[in-house]
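Q: Joint fold for the lines below.
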Amino acid sequence: MTHKTIAATIVAGVIAAAGTVQAQSLGGQTVEYTIPFSESGGSGQWANFYAPRLSQALPGNPTVVVRYRPGAGSTEGANWFQTQQDKGDGLTIFGDSGSTKFPYLLGDPRVRYEYADWKPILASATGGVVYLPPDLGARFDGDMDDLKDEVYLYGSQGATTLDLVPLLAFKMLGLQVDPVFGVDGRGGGRLMFERGEANIDYQTSSAYIANVQPLVDGGQAVPIFTWGALDEAGNIVRDPTFPDLPSFKEVCEATAVCETEGTAWDAYKAFFVAGFANQKTIFLPASASQEMVDTYTEALRAITTADGFMDEAGEVLGVYPQLIGAAAVEATRQATAITPEAKQYVLDWLKEDYGITMD
Amino acid sequence: MDTLAQALPSLGQAFVMIFQPMQLLYLIGGVLLGLSIGVLPGLGGIAGLALLLPFLYGMEPVSGLALMIGLIAVIPTSDTFSSVLMGIPGSSASQATVLDGFPLSKQGHAARALSAAFASSLAGGLFGAVVLTFFILIARPLILAFGLPEMLMITILGLSMVAILAGRVPLKGVVAAGLGVMVGTIGAAPAGGSLRMSTYDMPYLVDGFQLVIVGLGIYAIPEIVSLLRQDRAISEGGNLGDGWVQGVRDWWTHKWLSMRCATIGVLVGVIPGLGGSVVDWLAYGSAVQTAKDRSQFGQGDIRGVIAPESSNNAKEGGGLVPTLIFGIPGSGSMAIFLGGLALLNMTPGPQMVRNNLDVTYTIVWSLALANVFGAGLCIILSKYIARMTTIRFTVIAPYLFMIIAFAAFQSRQSALDLAALVGIGILGVLLRRFDFSRPAFLIGFVLSTQTEIFVNQAYQIAGARFRRSFEAGWDYLLSPITVGLLVLTVVSVVVGIRAAKHIRENIDAPTGTKTAPAIFLGVVVAYLAVSCLDAWGVGRVQDKIFPLTIGLVTLAGGLILVARMLRKPAGDDVFIDLECGPEGQAPHGLWSTLGWFVALVVMTFALGLFLALTIFLLAFFRLRGRFGWGRTILASGLGLGFISGLAAVLGRDLPPGYLQTLIELPWPLT
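A: Joint structure:
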C-alpha cells in the first residue's frame, strides 16, 4: 500500500464516519443541478421549480444552483454527466427530459451515456391532449374510423423529438397526417392550428389549460383524446387531469385499424412512457452511496407531500404524480427500455415515411 | 369603446399596484441590473433574466414582474453604449446602430450619439407601452392574420435591406449576404435534421453557430483589431465635442422618423416568430430610403442612430403582446420571461389577460417607468461614459476581449465557443479588409434559418391547399398582406440600390496588388462550391433545396466576381484592400495583433480560460501596453477579479482546458 492509497483510505474512512454521524448533511455546500438545456424551456422551468425546494428540504440547507449545458439536442449535457459518475458526494445531480431519452432509445450515434448506470431519485410525469377544428371534431364519436379520409396537417418540431409520440399515434389510428416540420416549440404548432394552417394538434396539459381551453369554450377547437397516464401496474388509463376525455388506448381499441398489442403498440408505449409518463427524471451519479440516495429521497418526499405542493406544482408541472424512491426507479427502467423489434419498427417507419435515419 | 371601458379601470388599478415604494424599488433594482448587463457587449436579456430566475420563486407577482420588466426594458437602451462607443453591437437588436453611431464617436460626437439614442429609446419604449395597453385586448385577430406566407414575406423584406447595405460593388454585397445565409445553414436542418457541412463527429457544428458568436465575431473582433493596431484613442481628436443636449435636440428634430421606426418596431415585435434581430435593420433601411440627403449615412448620420434605437425599444412592448396573449415567446429572452411568469404562478394566455387584467397592466406601467428611469440615467451618464473614447484603446482592448470571450462562452459553454469566435472573427477581419459588406453578411446569417423554415412550411401548406382546389391555394399565398409586403420589398430593393452608392462602411477605396483580394475571393468561392456539393449530397429534399439554391446563386455571384477580377486592372473596386490604404501604415501589423487572440484561444484549450487569461493579460499589458510591472499586475488583477466575479454572480464556470482533465483544480481555475 503506498502512502497515497493509505491517505485515501483514511480520508474515505473519515468521510464515511462523518456521513453516518451527520446523516449526510450538505450544509454550507453547493449542489449543482445540471440540465442539458438552455434557460428558456420547460426543463429550465422544471429545474427552477425544484431547486429552491431541494435547498430547503435537504439536510443542512445547501445552496442549489441550476446549471445549463445545452447542445446537440441535450445529448451533449447527458454525455457530460456520464463522465461525472465518480462524483457521488451528492453535490452533482442531473435532470433529463424526454428528448434525452429518445435518442438513447433510438440508438442515436451521439449518445455516449448509459441510463442503467445512473440512479434515478425523482420521476415527473406530464400529459397531453389532442384536439381538432370544430368541423372535424363534430364527426368524432369515440373512434377515428369516420375521420381517416381527411388530409391532416400537423405543425411538428421534428419526427425524433417528443412529436414522435403523436406522429406514431396518428399513424396507428390510420390517419394521413402530413407533418410540417421545423415548428418552434409546441406553441408554434398551436398558432398554426389557430391560423387554420394546421388541422390537428396536441398540447401538454398546462399549455392546453391556459391556451386551448379558451378556444374550446369559444367553439374553435374540440378535444378528442389524451395520451393517458400510467397506473401503478403500468397500464395506460385516463389522464387524471382530464377524466372526461378518453385515453389514446380507448380510442385505439375502438378504431378498426388500430391494435393495442403487437410491435407497434410496444413501440408506442415505450416512447409514451419516455416522453410523457416519465418525461423528466432527476439522477444521482452511479457512485452515490445508498445513504445519499436515501437522503435525497427523503428530501423529495418532504417536498412532494408538503401542504399545497400539488397546487403549486399544478401551475408549473401539471397535476401529475411526482414519483420517488422505488417507483422512480421502476418508471425510469420502463422509460429507458425498448424491445429490439419495437426499436426496429420505429427506425423503419422514420426512414420510410420521413427519410430520417440514425447515422 | 368596449375595449376602452375595459382597459381604463384596470389601468387605474394597475397604477395603484405599481406605485408602492416596494414595487418601485424592485423596478429600479431591475433597471440597474439591466443597465449593468446591457453595457457589457454580448450579454443581453437572456443572461440578465437567467440571473433573476432563482430569486423569483416565492416573490409577490407584481414585484417579480416589476423586476423582470425593469430589466428587459432597459437592455435595448443600455446596449447602445458598446454599439456607439466601441463599434460592437451590445445585443442583436442594436447591430444597425453601429453603422452610424460608431463613426460619430470616432469623430468625437459620442455623447451626442448616445443621448440621441437614449432619447429615441425612451420615445420608442413609451410608444411600445402605449401600444401594449390597447393591443393586448384586440391584437388576436391581427396576429392570426399573419400566416406563414406573410411571415416569409416580412423575412424577405428584411433580406432586401441587403440592397442598401451592399456597398460599393453591389455584387460583393450579394455574395456576402449569400455567404451569411450559407453559414446560417451549417448544422442540422430545421425540417428533417439532415446534417449540412457538419458531422456527428463534431457535435459542436451540429447545432450551428449561435448569433451571439457570429455578431461578436463579425463586428467586435475586426474593430478591436483595427483600433488596437492604431494604438490610440477611439475618438480621433481625443476630445469630446458637442454634448448630450445636442443629441436630445437631434431627436426632437427627427421626432417623426423616430415615431415611424417605433411603429415598425412594435409591428415586428407583435408578430411571433420573427424575432427582434431584423427590426433594427428594417428601421435603418426605412430611414435611408425616405431621406433626401443620403450622403452621410454610414459615416455618422444621426438619423442612422435614431432610427434603430427608436425601433428596438418599441419592439419589447410589441413582443410582450403575443407572449402574454398566446403564451408564445418571440425571442430567447421572452422564453425565459415566460419561465419567470410560471415561477410567479402566472400562466400567460387568454385567461390571464381576461381574468387578471390589472396585474397584466402593471407590466405596462413597469415598462413605461423602466424606460423613463433607464433613459434618464443613461442620458445623464452618457457625458461621463463617453469619455471612454478618449482613453488609449490598448488599455481597454484586453478587457473587452475578455468580456467578449466570456459572453461567447455563455452560448454553449464549450471551449469551442472561443475557437468559433476567433474563427468567425478572422472572417470578419477579412470581409472588412476586402470591403465585403459585413452588415449584409449578418442579415443573411440572422434570417437564414427563418427563411428556410418559412419557405418549407409555406410550400408544404400551400401544396395541401392546392390539392384541395386551385383557388384555395392562391387565396392562401396571395393575401392582401403578402401582396402589400411584396410591393414594399420591390420598392425597397429599387430605392435601396439607388441609395447604396452613398452608404459606405469605408470612405477610402485603396487598391494595391491583385493577389490578396484574389486569394480571399478564391477561398470564398471554394467554400461555396464545397457547400453546394455537400447540399447536393443531402438525402431529404426538404433539407437540401434551400442551401442548394442559395449556394448556387451565391456561387454564381462569386464566379462573376472572379471573371471581373480577370478582366479588370488592379485599380478596380473589386480589388479594394484596406491594407493598401492608411490601415496598412498602422504601427502594428494585422496578423500579429490577431495573433494575440489566437494565442489566448490556444492557451485556453491547454490551460483553461482563467490561467490563459492571466498569462494573456500580463503579457499584453507588459509588452503591448508597455506598462511597468506594478501597473501590469494591477491591471491584470482587476480584469481577473471582474471576470471571476461575473462568473460567480451568473453561476457559471469558466471554460476548462486540457490541464483540467488531468488534475482537479479549485474554482475559478476549473
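Q: Anything notable?
A: Chain B has three domains: 2-500, 515-576, 591-662. The radius of gyration of chain B is 24 Å.
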